[in-house]
Amino acid sequence: MMYIPIQGFISSFRLLDLLDIALVAFFLYKLFMLIRNTRAVALIKGLLILGAVTIVSKILDLHVVNWLLQQGMTVILVALPVVFQPELRRALEQIGRGRLFRSGQVISREELERLLDEIVAISESLAKTRTGALLVFEREVGLNDYIDTGIAINGIVSRELLGNIFIPNTPLHDGAVIIRDNKIMAAGCLLPLTSDRSLSTELGTRHRAAIGISELADAVVIVVSEETGAISYAYGGHIYRHIDGAALRNILMGFLDKPQPGLANLLKWGGTK
Protein backbone atom coordinates (compact mmCIF):
# COMPACT_ATOMS: atom_id res chain seq x y z
CA MET A 1 0.00 0.00 0.00
CA MET A 2 2.95 2.32 0.64
CA TYR A 3 4.48 1.73 -2.77
CA ILE A 4 2.30 4.13 -4.75
CA PRO A 5 2.75 7.22 -2.50
CA ILE A 6 6.51 6.67 -2.33
CA GLN A 7 6.68 6.22 -6.10
CA GLY A 8 4.67 9.38 -6.59
CA PHE A 9 6.95 11.29 -4.25
CA ILE A 10 10.07 10.11 -6.06
CA SER A 11 8.64 10.92 -9.48
CA SER A 12 7.75 14.45 -8.37
CA PHE A 13 11.13 15.11 -6.73
CA ARG A 14 13.17 17.73 -8.63
CA LEU A 15 16.78 18.84 -8.56
CA LEU A 16 15.59 22.20 -7.24
CA ASP A 17 14.07 20.38 -4.27
CA LEU A 18 17.47 18.88 -3.54
CA LEU A 19 19.04 22.35 -3.76
CA ASP A 20 16.32 23.68 -1.46
CA ILE A 21 17.05 21.01 1.17
CA ALA A 22 20.80 21.53 0.85
CA LEU A 23 20.48 25.31 1.40
CA VAL A 24 18.28 24.85 4.46
CA ALA A 25 20.72 22.28 5.88
CA PHE A 26 23.65 24.63 5.21
CA PHE A 27 22.06 27.57 7.00
CA LEU A 28 20.99 25.39 9.94
CA TYR A 29 24.58 24.14 10.21
CA LYS A 30 25.94 27.69 10.13
CA LEU A 31 23.40 28.70 12.76
CA PHE A 32 24.52 25.82 14.96
CA MET A 33 28.20 26.79 14.51
CA LEU A 34 27.31 30.38 15.39
CA ILE A 35 25.63 29.55 18.71
CA ARG A 36 27.80 26.58 19.65
CA ASN A 37 29.48 26.98 23.06
CA THR A 38 27.34 30.02 23.88
CA ARG A 39 24.52 30.56 26.35
CA ALA A 40 22.11 30.33 23.41
CA VAL A 41 22.55 26.55 23.39
CA ALA A 42 21.18 26.27 26.92
CA LEU A 43 18.24 28.51 26.00
CA ILE A 44 17.43 26.37 22.97
CA LYS A 45 17.55 23.22 25.11
CA GLY A 46 15.13 24.85 27.52
CA LEU A 47 12.75 25.71 24.66
CA LEU A 48 12.90 22.13 23.35
CA ILE A 49 12.07 20.77 26.81
CA LEU A 50 9.13 23.17 27.15
CA GLY A 51 7.93 22.16 23.69
CA ALA A 52 8.12 18.47 24.58
CA VAL A 53 6.22 19.05 27.85
CA THR A 54 3.55 21.00 25.95
CA ILE A 55 3.05 18.11 23.52
CA VAL A 56 2.85 15.57 26.36
CA SER A 57 0.33 17.70 28.26
CA LYS A 58 -1.83 17.89 25.14
CA ILE A 59 -1.70 14.12 24.62
CA LEU A 60 -2.67 13.52 28.27
CA ASP A 61 -5.48 16.11 28.06
CA LEU A 62 -4.00 18.26 30.82
CA HIS A 63 -5.92 21.29 29.65
CA VAL A 64 -4.85 23.80 32.29
CA VAL A 65 -1.17 22.83 32.09
CA ASN A 66 -1.30 22.86 28.30
CA TRP A 67 -2.94 26.31 28.26
CA LEU A 68 -0.35 27.74 30.64
CA LEU A 69 2.53 26.29 28.63
CA GLN A 70 1.11 27.61 25.36
CA GLN A 71 0.75 31.09 26.82
CA GLY A 72 4.28 30.89 28.20
CA MET A 73 5.65 29.76 24.84
CA THR A 74 3.95 32.72 23.15
CA VAL A 75 5.62 35.15 25.56
CA ILE A 76 8.99 33.42 25.10
CA LEU A 77 8.75 33.58 21.29
CA VAL A 78 8.05 37.32 21.49
CA ALA A 79 11.07 37.76 23.80
CA LEU A 80 13.47 35.65 21.69
CA PRO A 81 14.77 38.56 19.55
CA VAL A 82 15.78 40.35 22.76
CA VAL A 83 17.35 37.28 24.35
CA PHE A 84 19.28 36.35 21.22
CA GLN A 85 20.21 39.93 20.31
CA PRO A 86 24.02 39.35 20.47
CA GLU A 87 23.80 36.19 18.33
CA LEU A 88 21.47 37.84 15.79
CA ARG A 89 23.75 40.87 15.50
CA ARG A 90 26.78 38.63 15.11
CA ALA A 91 25.04 36.65 12.35
CA LEU A 92 24.11 39.81 10.44
CA GLU A 93 27.68 41.11 10.81
CA GLN A 94 29.08 37.86 9.44
CA ILE A 95 26.67 37.97 6.48
CA GLY A 96 27.69 41.56 5.77
CA ARG A 97 31.38 40.64 5.82
CA GLY A 98 30.89 37.46 3.82
CA ARG A 99 32.09 35.41 6.81
CA LEU A 100 28.93 33.27 6.92
CA PHE A 101 30.06 31.45 3.80
CA ARG A 102 33.63 31.06 5.00
CA SER A 103 34.88 27.82 6.46
CA GLY A 104 37.56 28.17 9.09
CA GLN A 105 40.57 30.40 8.82
CA VAL A 106 41.44 32.63 5.87
CA ILE A 107 45.17 32.82 6.50
CA SER A 108 47.60 30.51 4.73
CA ARG A 109 49.56 27.77 6.44
CA GLU A 110 52.71 29.89 6.17
CA GLU A 111 50.97 32.80 7.88
CA LEU A 112 49.73 30.48 10.61
CA GLU A 113 53.25 29.14 11.17
CA ARG A 114 54.56 32.71 11.47
CA LEU A 115 51.71 33.60 13.84
CA LEU A 116 52.56 30.67 16.11
CA ASP A 117 56.26 31.57 16.06
CA GLU A 118 55.44 35.10 17.24
CA ILE A 119 52.97 33.96 19.91
CA VAL A 120 55.29 31.32 21.36
CA ALA A 121 58.24 33.73 21.34
CA ILE A 122 56.39 36.54 23.13
CA SER A 123 54.75 34.13 25.59
CA GLU A 124 58.11 32.68 26.61
CA SER A 125 59.64 36.15 26.82
CA LEU A 126 56.81 37.47 29.02
CA ALA A 127 57.00 34.35 31.19
CA LYS A 128 60.72 34.89 31.84
CA THR A 129 60.13 38.47 33.03
CA ARG A 130 56.89 37.54 34.82
CA THR A 131 54.90 40.04 32.80
CA GLY A 132 51.17 39.33 32.87
CA ALA A 133 49.40 38.84 29.54
CA LEU A 134 46.03 37.71 28.22
CA LEU A 135 45.66 36.66 24.56
CA VAL A 136 42.28 35.64 23.13
CA PHE A 137 42.07 33.86 19.76
CA GLU A 138 38.71 34.22 18.05
CA ARG A 139 37.44 31.10 16.29
CA GLU A 140 33.90 30.39 15.01
CA VAL A 141 32.04 32.48 17.59
CA GLY A 142 32.56 36.19 16.99
CA LEU A 143 33.96 38.39 19.76
CA ASN A 144 32.97 41.81 18.45
CA ASP A 145 31.13 42.70 21.66
CA TYR A 146 34.41 42.34 23.58
CA ILE A 147 36.55 43.90 20.85
CA ASP A 148 34.42 47.03 21.16
CA THR A 149 35.41 47.40 24.84
CA GLY A 150 39.10 47.84 23.98
CA ILE A 151 41.34 50.06 21.89
CA ALA A 152 41.29 49.22 18.17
CA ILE A 153 44.67 48.05 16.85
CA ASN A 154 43.98 46.11 13.63
CA GLY A 155 47.67 45.27 13.21
CA ILE A 156 49.55 42.14 12.17
CA VAL A 157 50.59 40.01 15.13
CA SER A 158 54.25 40.41 16.05
CA ARG A 159 56.25 39.79 19.20
CA GLU A 160 57.40 43.42 19.19
CA LEU A 161 53.86 44.82 19.06
CA LEU A 162 52.60 42.45 21.74
CA GLY A 163 55.64 43.22 23.89
CA ASN A 164 54.80 46.93 23.75
CA ILE A 165 51.13 46.32 24.53
CA PHE A 166 51.94 44.34 27.68
CA ILE A 167 54.54 46.72 29.13
CA PRO A 168 53.66 46.97 32.85
CA ASN A 169 51.89 50.09 34.13
CA THR A 170 50.66 51.11 30.69
CA PRO A 171 46.98 51.64 29.78
CA LEU A 172 46.71 48.40 27.75
CA HIS A 173 48.66 46.11 30.05
CA ASP A 174 45.79 44.89 32.22
CA GLY A 175 43.28 44.20 29.44
CA ALA A 176 43.06 41.37 26.94
CA VAL A 177 44.35 41.29 23.38
CA ILE A 178 41.87 39.76 20.92
CA ILE A 179 43.32 38.16 17.80
CA ARG A 180 41.33 37.30 14.69
CA ASP A 181 43.20 35.24 12.08
CA ASN A 182 46.67 36.85 12.13
CA LYS A 183 45.61 40.34 13.27
CA ILE A 184 45.39 42.01 16.65
CA MET A 185 41.89 43.47 16.51
CA ALA A 186 42.02 45.32 19.82
CA ALA A 187 43.92 45.58 23.11
CA GLY A 188 42.85 46.51 26.61
CA CYS A 189 39.60 44.57 26.14
CA LEU A 190 37.33 43.79 29.08
CA LEU A 191 36.31 40.15 29.50
CA PRO A 192 33.63 38.59 31.71
CA LEU A 193 34.90 36.82 34.83
CA THR A 194 33.85 33.25 35.50
CA SER A 195 31.41 32.71 38.35
CA ASP A 196 32.88 29.28 39.15
CA ARG A 197 33.51 29.29 42.91
CA SER A 198 35.39 25.98 42.88
CA LEU A 199 38.50 27.46 41.27
CA SER A 200 41.76 27.65 43.16
CA THR A 201 42.44 30.88 45.04
CA GLU A 202 45.80 30.95 43.24
CA LEU A 203 44.02 32.01 40.06
CA GLY A 204 43.90 35.78 39.65
CA THR A 205 41.75 38.07 37.57
CA ARG A 206 43.47 37.22 34.28
CA HIS A 207 42.89 33.50 34.72
CA ARG A 208 39.27 34.03 35.74
CA ALA A 209 38.70 36.29 32.74
CA ALA A 210 40.26 33.65 30.45
CA ILE A 211 37.91 31.00 31.82
CA GLY A 212 34.97 33.40 31.66
CA ILE A 213 35.32 34.18 27.94
CA SER A 214 35.95 30.50 27.15
CA GLU A 215 32.63 29.66 28.82
CA LEU A 216 30.75 32.02 26.50
CA ALA A 217 32.57 31.41 23.20
CA ASP A 218 34.76 28.79 21.53
CA ALA A 219 37.83 31.03 21.81
CA VAL A 220 41.15 29.65 23.02
CA VAL A 221 42.86 31.94 25.54
CA ILE A 222 46.53 32.16 26.52
CA VAL A 223 47.43 33.51 29.98
CA VAL A 224 50.85 34.45 31.32
CA SER A 225 50.86 34.76 35.09
CA GLU A 226 52.29 37.93 36.57
CA GLU A 227 52.99 36.20 39.90
CA THR A 228 54.67 32.98 38.72
CA GLY A 229 55.41 33.51 35.02
CA ALA A 230 53.54 30.26 34.24
CA ILE A 231 51.88 29.91 30.83
CA SER A 232 48.33 28.52 30.78
CA TYR A 233 45.52 28.20 28.28
CA ALA A 234 41.74 28.14 28.71
CA TYR A 235 39.10 26.53 26.53
CA GLY A 236 35.53 25.42 27.08
CA GLY A 237 35.41 26.77 30.62
CA HIS A 238 38.52 24.89 31.75
CA ILE A 239 42.07 26.08 32.32
CA TYR A 240 45.23 24.06 31.75
CA ARG A 241 48.28 25.39 33.55
CA HIS A 242 52.07 25.21 33.34
CA ILE A 243 52.70 24.50 29.65
CA ASP A 244 55.96 25.14 27.81
CA GLY A 245 56.55 26.75 24.43
CA ALA A 246 56.49 23.51 22.44
CA ALA A 247 53.22 22.41 24.02
CA LEU A 248 51.75 25.88 23.47
CA ARG A 249 52.57 25.73 19.78
CA ASN A 250 50.98 22.30 19.37
CA ILE A 251 47.87 23.37 21.27
CA LEU A 252 47.37 26.50 19.18
CA MET A 253 48.02 24.58 15.97
CA GLY A 254 45.30 22.12 16.93
CA PHE A 255 42.79 24.89 17.58
CA LEU A 256 43.67 27.27 14.73
CA ASP A 257 44.77 25.02 11.87
CA LYS A 258 41.76 24.56 9.61
CA PRO A 259 41.53 24.08 5.83
CA GLN A 260 40.98 27.16 3.73
CA PRO A 261 37.80 27.34 1.67
CA GLY A 262 37.93 27.24 -2.06
CA LEU A 263 38.14 25.04 -5.13
CA ALA A 264 41.60 23.78 -4.25
CA ASN A 265 40.32 22.09 -1.10
CA LEU A 266 37.32 20.61 -2.88
CA LEU A 267 39.62 19.05 -5.44
CA LYS A 268 41.68 17.45 -2.65
CA TRP A 269 38.78 15.20 -1.80
CA GLY A 270 39.27 13.38 -5.06
CA GLY A 271 43.05 13.33 -4.93
CA THR A 272 45.69 11.42 -3.07
CA LYS A 273 46.58 12.55 0.44
From TrEMBL:
Q: Which InterPro entries match?
A: C-di-AMP_synthase (IPR014046), CdaA (IPR034701), CdaA_N (IPR045585), DisA (IPR050338), DNA_integrity_DisA_N_sf (IPR036888), DNA_integrity_scan_DisA_N (IPR003390)
Q: Is the RNA-binding keyword given for this protein?
A: no
| GO molecular function annotations of the record | adenylate cyclase activity; ATP binding; diadenylate cyclase activity
Q: What is an annotated GO biological process for this record, any one?
A: cAMP biosynthetic process
Q: Which reaction does it catalyse?
A: 2 ATP = 3',3'-c-di-AMP + 2 diphosphate
Name the Enzyme Commission number(s) assigned to this protein: 2.7.7.85
Key words of the record: ATP-binding, Cell membrane, Membrane, Nucleotide-binding, Nucleotidyltransferase, Transferase, Transmembrane, Transmembrane helix
Q: Which Pfam families match?
A: CdaA_N, DAC
DAC domain location, by residue?
Answer: 85-245
Residue ranges of the TM segments: 6-29, 41-60
Read off the Gene3D superfamilies from this record. DNA integrity scanning protein, DisA, N-terminal domain
What this chain does, per the record?
Answer: Catalyzes the condensation of 2 ATP molecules into cyclic di-AMP (c-di-AMP), a second messenger used to regulate differing processes in different bacteria.
Q: Family assignment? A: Belongs to the adenylate cyclase family. DacA/CdaA subfamily.
Q: Assembly state and interactors?
A: Probably a homodimer.
What is the protein named? Answer: Diadenylate cyclase
Organism equals Megasphaera vaginalis (ex Srinivasan et al. 2021)
